[in-house]
Amino acid sequence: MRISLQRTGGFAGISKKAIVDTANLSSEETQQLSHLLEAVNFFNLPTIINTPSNQADRFQYTLTVEENNQQHTVKVSEAALPGNLKQIIEWINARGN
Q1: Alpha-carbon gap, residue 13 to 35, rounded angstroms
Q2: Which end of the chain, N or C, is surrounded by fewer C-beta atoms within 10 Å?
Q3: Are 74 and 45 in contact (CB under 8 A)?
Q4: Backbone angles phi, psi at 86, to 5 degrees
């Protein structure tokens, strides 16, 4: 499984990218990640999750998961970020390169 996370926007407009490949993780970390993705039902999330109004200086996240010939991308604004998706983003940021 390969996951890429890109953060754009914010006050300075600096982009940040993190990539996690389970081939480089321990089996425990791979299980943690799989559990987080299953808990949020990632492959069934809408491709765009936004707030009703545009909020300046907020981060935008683009999260792409590739697994077993399946790929899904979710774009979400910081203000609309569900807690369980936030956990995935924090997990990836802690381990991604």
Answers
A1: 32
A2: C
A3: yes
A4: -60, -40
> Within 10 A of 26 (CB to CB), how many other CB atoms are there?
9
- For residues 89 and 81, is the Cβ–Cβ distance under 8 A? yes
For 51-70, the pLDDT digits (tens) are: 766 666 788 999 999 999 99
pTM (two decimals) = 0.87
State the number of CA atoms in the 13 A half-sphere of 83 facing the CB: 0
Q: Which two tokens stand for residue 63?
A: 């999260």
Domains delineated in the chain:
2-95 (3.30.350)
| CA pair distance 23, 40, nearest whole angstrom | 22
Distances (CA, A) of 43 to 16, 26, 47: 23, 23, 9
